[in-house]
Amino acid sequence: MGSYLNDVWRCRYFWLSLVKNDLRTRYRRSVLGMGWSLLHPIAMTAILCVVFPTILGVKVRDYAPYLLTGLACWNFIRTVSLQGCQCLFQGESYIRQYPAPLAIYPLRTALGEIIHFLMALVVVLVLTWSINGFGNVLGLLSLIPTLLLLFIFGWSLAVLAGFANVHFQDTQHLCEIGFQILFYATPVMYKSEMLAGNQFAWLLQCNPLIAFLDLVRQPIWQGQVPSLYSYGVAGLTVALTSGTAAVVLTRLQRRLIFHL
After folding, report:
1. Helix, strand, or coil here: 98?
2. What percentage of residues in the chain have a pLDDT greater than 70?
3. DSSP sequence for 159-193
């Protein structure tokens, strides 16, 4: 694994140029440019803040940062998985000509999406500071390991989605349906405490994505360092996902060219 990651690092100028080209192509001749990536979570937050604070009985000033942070984290996980389904097809021309490690093509997807996620976090911080002040500055240091965990998690998801979609090209459609269902089973719009004692509370206990939401929300929204339990669940999830991705790369990458 160390040798493989070293090979990926030696190709850094190649995959960095791919990421730069993706961003340039995506926002070419656009008025807002990368600002369009922020429009969806901001618009969703504005719309949901009209209705849900009344239903949930919370104040808009408390609900808006909570919701926007959740949407930013959710959109990263969802988008990196869905776009990861196409990452190997997008790199097909390079794969046929250049014997680089195949992990760089999911890495290309993960890097592009983590840039959008960081931009969304800046908007969340500006909103939180304008409402609650700068009381969360020290807690923000905990975002450094959180971003590392999220990046590795997103990279691993892109690897798994890319290989799965090459072998079974309905994977992306199934992922879209699955994420739509999972969205309502994840406390993005509501707080997990609302389901305490409910018959569906067990769904939250089985959902590892909640740990990632807590790791991002608690430093920004509450100004607190996340609990060791949240780090433990997120770390275990990343370890299992990245381990599975490593096994898939080891076993399938040499025969991938025959399936493209």
Report:
1. coil
2. 92
3. HHHHHHHHH-TTHHHHHHHHHHHHHHTTTTSS-GG
